[in-house]
Amino acid sequence: MADGYDPDFLTVQVPLPASAPDARELTYPHFSVLLDAERRLAAVTAVNIDGALLRDLPRSGDWQLDPRVPESAQTGPEVYARNDLDRGHLVRRRDPGWGENAADAMEATFFYSNAAPQAAGFNQSKELWLGLEDHVLGYAETTDQRISVFTAPVLGDDDPPYRGIRIPLRFWKIAAWFGPSGLASAGFVLDQRELVDTRDGLLAAPPLGAFRTFQVPVADIAAMTGIDLGILSDADVLSAPAARDEGWRMLQTPADVVLSRSV
How many domains does the chain have? Predict the structure, then answer.
């Protein structure tokens, strides 16, 4: 369908993370999705963002199944109907929207392969999660304004069943950029377990429940997902000696995010 994620987008090569061997790679303008057919959700998404070329275009696009994949391998509209689940964009609509094919790239984010069920309640913590790419991009402005972002649900064994799928309780995100000291990365986790209750085959999501957002070691994301994150683990800003013992950092505002190895 399109060019997909470019591992040479940053100054050093950052390969697409490797997930399950049977995952299907789907390419779109400026991003790729590794689709786990068994879970019917993305195991990895990867997008290149060129901040200098981002375009502010009107929202357009309708959710649709990707015709390259059997419907049985995708989480489609029936999962999101008549409940409090959002079709959560994994690659955000605006992130691949740069360059000459910006409009096509934005519309491509509306394929169901790029969605995962998220509780509909919105609060400050979820707003922080949605804005992490912007925060990292702002930090990267001192270099070439380019970042690569990797996002997906944690496909856990304890995810609760609902309408033929299992709803992820956590999501992970890693941002990577090339800064003054070389490649750097930062890992994050969003926890929605307090918002999802599928007992009796129903879905209950308190509208003002607590999303929790953490900055975490990239190595912890690799361990919890089983995904080979390679060079991203080595470049983690939390691997600096001063930050190594902090573990998971609960985030309240963007000011809580660590983006430098100097801390």
Answer: 1
